[in-house]
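Priority: medium. Attachment 1 of 2:
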């Protein structure tokens, strides 16, 4: 009884502890303990009760409590084996519990009737020394077996479940089931021994308590801890971080498998610890390098103190992470993000930021920003395909980098534009340029000689935006003329103002066109034979709102370069045709020559434009003469020749403007039948050899006459020139000698009889 008392107290205390834990396992353990306490208490009371009827009732209740205890144990086993949380068994458990509850009630009912009918057991007093009551002696009848077998059946279910679990469960969990199985087996065995031995005192009751407590220990403490330890060991061995733990005496008390891989020798790790302790810091994070099989590994090292719950140090922990691969990948990624995939040179952004760093690191040196541009590189793509173009760029970039010393920064800014930064104190820029120029030789291997243009900007302010430095070097290239013998240009500040001017023109263009700021001026064209004005050349002027008049030289080229010239030309052509229509109505026979820019051939359908224009205003095409410069005919001869002959067939007169200023004027004469040749007097007179010039002019005129081509000479400024041309039987003149380009109103009042004019068209 004393022993029972001790167990009851122990279990009671444990129950209080279990109550705090809300997990289903703790709850069921709590119920189990409570059941065990009730059974033990009932048994002890049954022992000391002296009244026979009370003894009968309490003993019945004791057996009922035992049955209930086994039910609680089943419930615990369901939770312990995790069957209750598995959806597979949930329904089974529910049905099972329901059925067994009925069974339990039947058993309890039969047991509770025993005090009246004595059908299960009979009690008799047991005395010591004949008159001292010791305890009750029970005699069992076969009906009691119902109770016994029911409890055994339930126990069998428990054994069954545990056995299956023992067989199926993982190594870690096997022990947890085996231990509970074993304790339960012992308890049951003791119980059976008691029943068989027919002793009066049932010691197996004590085993219920022992069983409950052991179950608790195993399920809640020992087994989870063992599993946890095993898991932690596996985890720490499997992670890539090496862990060393030392006590305060610097003795290594723990190291995982990875850690051992990093430091093979004991001394090495101790030396490392020493060096860390020498830093006298609570926490150290740094990268270290170690040698391993000819390889150098980079380890991220983290050192700190091991602290207990009171924050008192009881050792040191050293974590080592191999970041060699990571660093390699990161450096690879950095390379990819900063280097151009095709050429391997720095990308634009990377080049700019690297340049900035260099300039800031040594601001006293003199630097040059160089921009290289391959002239007409687009042609390589068009002729050989973009794959070949890429291949060429790759090779070019490689050679470009190799021509320069290592200290030089090279980048690919866009397409075929490369940037080079040179330090004048280390590299002579003339030398560098020479080497770049030599690359042209390499382009010959492509069967297509490419010209490399180089723009140079001398960096004066290192705080200037690097992209603007490059833009200036690139801008210098724009200044390189079509004359291929010169391919290097230095940036100067005028270039920027030119650029600004270009922008101004482009920005103001649309407004000027819509608000009629562009005016058609006319320069008379005179017939040589009678010196009569027979027509005029239409020349554009830009009249601003402030009254300034800009000559075409200041904007035509800009509009051409920016693909806007056709808009202006169409505007002037329409003005010319409108005027011709007016003159036609007035019976005036004059023609007008209009200028057609080379770019117009690419920007608009010329044939359709001109034919629809004359149709719209109902004028004969012969009245509109088209001045085309020979450059338009050099490029794309086949295509342009077709346009020109189609226009001629329609009735237009084609004039070849600025004849003799290009290289291939005579070749063109051979290929296309031109109606009129326009020769610039200024062009010839500028030459030193005046006499020779005159002879050339003379033979050109004669040749044209033989070919049936008419001649008009422009730039005639003095009488002497006019006389000379007259003697050569030249057809028409145009020049300041007769008139500068003038407004339509002035032209009409000066060269058309006043009676014909009913109003001015400007
Ligand atoms: P261009 O077609 O060769 O026009 C002749 C230029 O020579 C005109 O200059 C004219 O004013 C100038 N000039 C005529 N006689 C003499 C002379 O005796 N002495 C001198 N020194 N110069 C003379 P302008 O009007 O400044 O035009 C310049 C160029 O602009 C033209 O050269 C033409 O190429 C272009 N241009 C003019 N108007 C237009 C236009 O509406 N469309 C296009 N696409 N180009 C035009
Ligand atoms: Ca012209
Ligand atoms: Ca001309």
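Attachment 2 of 2:
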């Amino acid at each position: 009884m004393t022993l029972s008392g001790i167990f009851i107290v122990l279990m009671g205390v444990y129950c209080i502890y279990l109550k705090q834990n809300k997990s289903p396992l703790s709850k069921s353990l709590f119920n189990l303990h409570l059941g065990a306490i009730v059974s033990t208490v009932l048994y002890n009371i049954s022992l000391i009760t002296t009244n026979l009827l009370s003894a009968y009732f309490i003993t019945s209740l004791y057996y009922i409590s035992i049955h209930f205890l086994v039910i609680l144990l089943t419930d615990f086993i369901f939770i312990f084996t995790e069957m209750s949380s598995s959806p597979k068994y949930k329904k089974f458990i529910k049905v099972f519990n329901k059925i067994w509850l009925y069974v339990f009630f039947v058993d309890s009912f039969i047991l509770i009737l025993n005090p009246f009918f004595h059908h299960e057991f009979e009690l008799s007093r047991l005395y010591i020394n004949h008159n001292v009551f010791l305890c009750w002696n029970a005699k069992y009848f076969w009906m009691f077996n119902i109770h016994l077998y029911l409890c055994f059946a339930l126990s069998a279910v428990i054994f069954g479940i545990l056995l299956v679990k023992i067989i199926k469960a993982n190594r870690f969990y096997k022990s947890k089931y085996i231990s509970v199985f074993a304790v339960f087996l012992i308890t049951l065995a003791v119980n059976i021994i008691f029943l068989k031995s027919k002793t009066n005192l049932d010691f197996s009751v004590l085993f219920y308590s022992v069983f409950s407590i052991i179950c608790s220990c195993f399920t809640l403490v020992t087994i989870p801890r063992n599993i946890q330890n095993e898991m932690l060991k596996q985890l720490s061995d499997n992670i890539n971080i090496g862990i060393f733990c030392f006590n305060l005496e610097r003795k290594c008390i723990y190291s995982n498998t990875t850690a051992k891989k990093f430091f093979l020798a004991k001394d090495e790790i101790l030396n490392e610890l020493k060096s860390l302790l020498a830093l006298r810091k609570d926490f150290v994070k740094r990268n270290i390098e170690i040698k391993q099989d000819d390889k150098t590994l980079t380890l991220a090292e983290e050192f700190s103190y091991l602290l207990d719950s009171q924050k008192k140090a009881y050792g040191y922990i050293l974590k080592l992470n191999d970041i060699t691969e990571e660093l390699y990948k990161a450096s690879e990624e950095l390379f990819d993000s900063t280097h151009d995939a095709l050429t391997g040179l720095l990308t634009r952004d990377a080049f700019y930021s690297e340049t900035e760093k260099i300039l800031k690191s040594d601001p006293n040196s003199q630097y040059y920003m160089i921009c290289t541009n391959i002239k007409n590189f687009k042609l390589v793509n068009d002729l050989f395909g973009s794959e070949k173009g890429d291949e060429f760029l790759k090779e070019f970039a490689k050679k470009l980098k190799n021509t320069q010393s290592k200290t030089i920064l090279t980048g690919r800014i866009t397409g075929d534009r490369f940037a080079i930064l040179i330090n004048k104190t280390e590299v002579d820029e003339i030398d560098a340029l020479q080497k770049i120029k030599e690359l042209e030789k390499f382009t010959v291997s492509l069967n297509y000689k490419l010209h490399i243009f180089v723009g140079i900007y001398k960096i004066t302010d290192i705080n200037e935006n690097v992209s603007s430095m490059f833009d200036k070097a690139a801008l210098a290239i724009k200044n390189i003329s079509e004359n291929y013998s010169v391919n290097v240009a230095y940036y100067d500040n005028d270039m920027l103002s030119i650029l600004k001017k270009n922008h101004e023109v482009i920005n103001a263009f649309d407004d000027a066109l819509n608000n009629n700021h562009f005016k058609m001026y006319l320069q008379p064209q005179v017939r040589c034979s009678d010196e009569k004005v027979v027509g005029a050349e239409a020349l554009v002027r830009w009249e601003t709102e402030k009254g300034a008049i800009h000559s075409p030289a200041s904007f035509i080229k800009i509009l051409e370069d920016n693909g806007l010239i056709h808009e202006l030309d169409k505007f002037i052509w329409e003005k010319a045709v409108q005027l011709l229509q007016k003159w036609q109505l007035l019976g005036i026979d004059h023609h007008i020559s209009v200028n057609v820019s080379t770019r117009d051939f690419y920007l608009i359908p010329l044939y359709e434009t001109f034919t629809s224009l004359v149709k719209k205003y109902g004028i004969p095409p012969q009245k509109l003469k088209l001045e085309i410069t020979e450059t338009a005919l050099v490029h794309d001869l086949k295509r342009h020749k077709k346009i020109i002959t189609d226009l001629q067939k329609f009735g237009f007169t084609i004039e070849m403007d600025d004849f003799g200023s290009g290289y291939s004027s005579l070749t063109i004469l051979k290929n296309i039948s031109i109606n009129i040749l326009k020769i610039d007097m200024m062009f010839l007179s500028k030459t030193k050899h005046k006499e020779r010039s005159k002879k050339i002019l003379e033979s050109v005129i004669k040749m044209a006459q033989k070919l049936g081509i008419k001649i008009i000479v422009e730039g005639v400024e003095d009488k002497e020139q006019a006389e000379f041309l007259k003697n050569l039987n030249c057809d028409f003149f145009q020049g300041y000698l007769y008139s500068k380009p003038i407004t339509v109103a002035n032209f009409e009042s000066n060269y058309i009889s006043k009676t014909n004019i009913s109003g001015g068209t400007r």
